[in-house]
Amino acid sequence: MAALSLGPVFFNWEPERWRDFHFRLADEAPIDTVYLGEVVCAKRTPFIAPHLDAVIERLKRAGKRVALSSLALIGNEREAALMRDLCAEGDLIVEANDIGLLRLLAGRPHRLGPFINIYNESTLAHFAARGAVGACLPPELPGSSIARLAAPAVIPLEIVAFGRLPLAISARCFHARAHRLHKDGCRFVCAQDPDGLVVRTLEGEPFLAINGLQTLSYTCVSLLGELHQLQRAGVAGFRLSPLATDMAAVARLFRDVLDRRIAAEEATGRLAGLVPETPLANGFLHGAEGRSRHRAELLGLE
Amino acid sequence: MEIVAPAGTPAAFRAALAAGADTVYVGFRDETNARNFPGLNFSAEELDQAIRAAHEQRRKVYVAVNTFPRAGAEATWHRAVDTAAALGADAVILADIGLMAYASRRHPELRLHLSVQAAASHADAVRFYAETFGIRRVVLPRVLTVEEIAALNAAVPIETEVFAFGGMCPMAEGRCSLSSYVTGRSPNMSGVCSPASHVRYERQGDALVSRLGGSVINRFGAEEAAGYPTLCKGRFIADGRASYLFEEPVSLNAAAILAELRAAGVAALKIEGRQRGRAYVAAIVAAYRGLIDTLMREGGVPRDTVAALDRLAEGQSETTGAYGRRWR
């Protein structure tokens, strides 16, 4: 049976909001694994730190597995030191999002996040031989590649099935730049936008979303229609990437479709209602523009 | 410091050598390299001739096989590495871990360089690649400051190469799907960013509008020079204000900080632009040859050469980019 996971919160939410969000999901959401940790900006790491232990404890008590996600871009010694601390925690499995963590994790089980490039069988085999026990594939991979990687079941593979997709990471802070600030004096303006700041073209077309150093899709990926095909192709898990909506309701929709309690079409309609401002898309999976939307039956994985 | 010059054609290759490049880097005419543009790059025969010509002059040739092999089609990338090795390339520039595993196993004598697309942005990542695959040189991402480059050089056992001139990527390279989000084609998978096949220009009164995949990337007034609509160099609206949100349409030009880069321990300077013509390549390489020779002789670089380079830059505007902390 396919597992459902909750990805790390990419956005700079108020620490109490972040804590309560996870408390609520611990009680209410049919989710198997929860990924915690600051992925986007090292400057934000101190914010969730005071609540981390309580959240881990609450999730574990609710029967969830917990993993710690690393930063997506390690560019200096301070960030590397943070990652050494993360890997030294010991009892929780670490999800590496930058190649720089692999030496630290050598010889012990770890997972690979969607920021690590896995495009083909040889790369996946290499990581598995080094001790990776699971991986979340990069969002731009087409279904044909996913099927080839998942079929041999080398290690359990997960794909991002809901949320704004991470498209790029930089050392430059675009949120600060939008507010005519620099990264060093950013005033944490990213906290004003719990789903990221929508970027429009000069014609006013919503185009992308920025979140500090990260650029995300404007659209929200939804693979509800393709879940059964992907499951048959060997995909072991589906990741829901948090947005500022009722994520427990989102998780229930995915679980209900996986368990065939409701049809994908009906669930997709309800999902659209949970993110009313944000159009749904599935283009990458269909080998097309990531922002485009395609009919699930055209995927043709079977 | 070694000058590593680009060549997208045999003519540009000859021009780079004539202008004084120590090394020229090239790619095959297919999806195995990150400048997979129509009419560009080398056949095996052309590469054979290029390598012979370079070696006669005791110069070097690096072959970029720096896209990520597609699942089920890795043989195409394996062949590219095999051909480069068979023809005597001085190094191959790789980005994919599976391909590095193949190259280090199949061609243990072949020198491997780490492409900027492999996103090794810290000493820990560089050491991973060096220890695991015997990588001998890393091309650093264009997101590090000179200070960070110096710290990295002090901590890693291999050479570093940095971008000195040309296109300026504001994102960590090899980790960007902006192009495929809008056009379906990406640097990692297809070897193209913001491909010309998806570009349209249209007149709106006095203004010229550029589009990528149907979306407006920029709008130029009558007095503005119109540029190519590379996605991250566009003008967008955030928080109610239009701006070059990600990056201005500028070129990188590290000419003014060559002494700092040398002091930071950088072994080689890379000039971007395999898509450029031979006249451009010749001009940039000759200017950098003069700068490096002067730097080695006198310890500094002449301001007029730096200014001349600025005039060759994209949009006639240059930046030292992420090498300065203010860029962030």
How would you characterize this protein structure?
The complex is a heterodimer of chains A (302) and B (328). Chain A has one domain (3-164, 219-298): Alpha-Beta Barrel (TIM Barrel). Helices cover 31% and strands 21% of the residues of chain A. Chain A has helices at residues 15-28, 45-61, 77-88, 121-129, 143-150, 174-178, 227-232, 247-258, 264-274, and strands at 3-6, 33-36, 65-69, 93-96, 110-112, 132-136, 157-169, 197-200, 206-211, 214-222, 237-240, 280-281. In chain A, helix 5 links the parallel strand 6 (132-136) and strand 7. Chain A is globular and about 50 Å long. Chain B folds into two domains: 2-168 and 250-327, Aldolase class I (TIM Barrel); 178-243, no CATH class. In chain B, strand 9 and strand 10 form a beta hairpin. In chain B, helix 1 (10-19) runs parallel beside helix 2 (44-56) and helix 3 crosses helix 4. Chains A and B meet through helix 3, helix 4, helix 5, strand 7 and helix 6 of A and helix 4, helix 5, helix 7, strand 10 and strand 11 of B.
What is the N-to-C succession of helices and strands of chain B? EHEHEHEHEHEHEHHEEEEEEHEHHE
Count of discrete structural domains of chain B: 2
- The proportion of strand residues of chain A reads 15-25%
Biggest interface and which pair forms it? A-B, 71 and 69 residues
- The low-confidence parts of chain B are none
The number of helical runs of chain B is: 11
CATH first level of the largest domain in chain B: Alpha Beta
Under CATH at level 1, the class of chain A stands as Alpha Beta
| Spatial ordering of strands, largest sheet of chain A | 1-2-3-4-5-6-7-11
The assigned CATH architecture of the largest domain in chain B is Alpha-Beta Barrel
**Average of the residue pLDDT scores of chain A:** 96
